[in-house]
Write a structure and sequence with these properties.
The protein contains eleven helices and 20 strands. The chain is an alpha+beta fold. It has a domain of about 160 residues: FAD/NAD(P)-binding domain (3-Layer(bba) Sandwich), CATH 3.50.50.60. Bound molecules: flavin-adenine dinucleotide. The site of flavin-adenine dinucleotide has 42 residues, from α1 and β18.
Length: about 400
Amino acid sequence: MRTYDVIIIGGGIVGLSTAMKMSSEYPNLDIAVIEKEDGFAEHQTGHNSGVIHAGIYYKPGSKKGNFCYAGNKELRKYCDIKGIEYELCGKLIVATDIKELEMLKDLHSRGVANGVDGLKMIDKNEIKDIEPHASGLGALHSPNTGIVDYKLVAKAYAEDAEQQGVDLFTSCKFLGYKFQNGKTYLNTTDGDFETEWTINCAGLYADKIANKMDVSSDTRIIPFRGEFFSIIPEKSSMIKGLIYPVPQPELPFLGVHFTKRVDGTIEAGPNAVLAFARQGYKKTDFSMADLFEYLRFPGFWRMSATHWKTGIDEQYRSLFKKVFAKSLQKLVPDIKEEDLSNPSAGVRAQAVSFKGEIVQDFKILSGPKSIHVLNAPSPAATASLIIGEEIVQNAKSNFDI
Ligand SMILES: Cc1cc2nc3c(=O)[nH]c(=O)nc-3n(C[C@H](O)[C@H](O)[C@H](O)COP(=O)(O)OP(=O)(O)OC[C@H]3O[C@@H](n4cnc5c(N)ncnc54)[C@H](O)[C@@H]3O)c2cc1C
C-alpha cells in the first residue's frame, strides 16, 4: 500500500498550487496529488478566459477581495521567475447607460478598498484612446489586469511540486474512503492509498467527495457552462485588450466580454448557462445522475426562483448566435454575428447554498483530518498562489503536523 502524510485530490491549479506550497513549507512530509484525468489542468483550469484579474468586483473584506490582487502580484512575480509569458494588457469595464455609470462608481470604490492600484474612471473620449472600437458613456480602466495561459502556470506548479518531492499520479480517480485506527484509506482507480491527511481540491466534484468523506456542508456544486467564440482574424485587431460590461452585482458572472489571449487571438464570452452534466462542455452533454442530483437539491429550486429571468435570458443567448452578437455590440458596435467563429466552452463549479444563494466567496472547510475546497470559481486561477498558501495555513492550524 502506498502511504503518504498528505494526499491532495485534484490536479487543477488549486490542488497543484497547494502541493507546491505545502512541499516548500514542509519538505519532510510525504505528499501526493491524485488526478482522475491522464493529465493536469484538464477542466476549469484548462478552459478559462486566461485573465489575471485585478480584484475590482469583490466585496471588501471577503476572501476574494483579499486574495485577488495579492494573487495577481504573486502570479506575475512567479511568471517572471519561471519565464511564463503574460501581458498586462489592461481592462475597460464599460458603462453603456446612466444606471451603469452609477454602478461603475461603486465598482471603483470596491477596487480601491481591495487595494487595486491604478484604477481610473474615464470618459467616453478616453475610451477611444484605449479601445478605438469600443463605445460607452464612461468606463473604469484597470491597467493591472492581464492575461496568461493558466495551463502553463499549472504545469509549472506541478513541476515545482515534483522537484520538491511530491508524487504526482494521473489516471487516478478517488472512488471512496475508509477511516480506521486514525488513518484514512483512499480507494482509487489506481489502487488504495493510506494517508494521514486529505485535501480535496476536486473542482466540479468537490462537494461529492466531501460528501463521500462524511463532511457536511450546506452547499452543492451547480455546473454553469461558459460558452466562447473566437473573433475571426480579420477583425481581431479591433480589440486591443479586455473589454467588459458592467456586471449584475448579485451574480458572480461578469457578462459576455472581449478577451485578448496570450497568443494574440481574441475571444468573446463566456456566458453562463446551466449545464446538464458536471463536465458538460457541449450543449448536448447530459448526465442523468448529475441532473438528478441538483434537481433533488432544494437550493437549486430556490436559486431558480430568484434568478429564473436571467436563466432564461442566458439560455436564449446561448441558443441564438445573433443574440450573443447583440450583447457584444453594446460594447463594440462594429462586431457582427459573422465575426464569431470556433465555439468552445468551459464549465464553472459554482457552489449554491441550501437557501438558494449563489455563494460569492471562496469556501474552504477544514476538519481535523481533511480540508475541502468547496467553492473556488473565478478569480481562483488568479489567486491560486494565495489560496494554496491559505490551505497550508489551515492545515497548520487543523492538522497535527
Ligand atoms: C469559462 C471559465 C472562465 C474563467 N475565467 C477565469 C479567468 O479569466 N481568471 C481566473 O482567475 N479564473 C477564471 N475562471 C475560474 C478558474 O478557472 C477556476 O477558478 C480554477 O481553475 C479552479 O481550479 P481548481 O483546481 O479548483 O479546479 P479544476 O481546474 O477544475 O481542477 C479540479 C481537478 O480535480 C480533478 N478531479 C475531480 N474529481 C476527481 C476525483 N474523483 N479523483 C481525482 N481527481 C478528481 C479534476 O479532473 C480536475 O483536474 C474561469 C472558469 C471558467 C470555467
